[in-house]
Amino acid sequence: MADETQTPPDESPAEAAKRKFREALDRNAANARSQQAHQNRAKIQGAGSGGGGGKNKKVRRKTG
């Protein structure tokens, strides 16, 4: 990370700001992708317990 904070001597302040902004966007995008992948795995793992088990099935009786 120390290499990322050092700017090349021929880089203007505007270029440095653009570079830092792009790096931050890349970090945020990578974080969002890993978070989304984690959430998708959690959904897939919990999918087997619901639906056709009938364990929590509610039945309504006719009254007449």
List its traits.
mainly alpha; 64 residues; 0% strand; 2 helices
Nearest-integer average pLDDT:
74
Helix/strand structural class: mainly alpha
Extended strand count: 0
Can you summarize the main beta sheet?
none
| Residue share in β-strands | under 5%
Oligomer: single chain
Number of helices: 2
Distance, first to last CA: 74 Å
Residues in helix, %: 55-70%
Please trace the helix and strand order, writing H or E for each element.
HH
Low-confidence stretches: none
Question: What characteristic shape results from the CA principal axes?
Answer: rod-shaped
**Rg over CA atoms:** 26 Å
What's the layout of helices and strands?
Blueprint: H1 2-5, H2 13-46
What's the short version?
This protein has 64 residues and is mainly alpha-helical.
Q: Would you mind describing this structure in some detail?
A:
- The structure is a single chain.
- The chain has helices at residues 2-5, 13-46.
- It contains two helices and no strands.
- It is 59% helix and 0% strand.
- The mean pLDDT is 74.
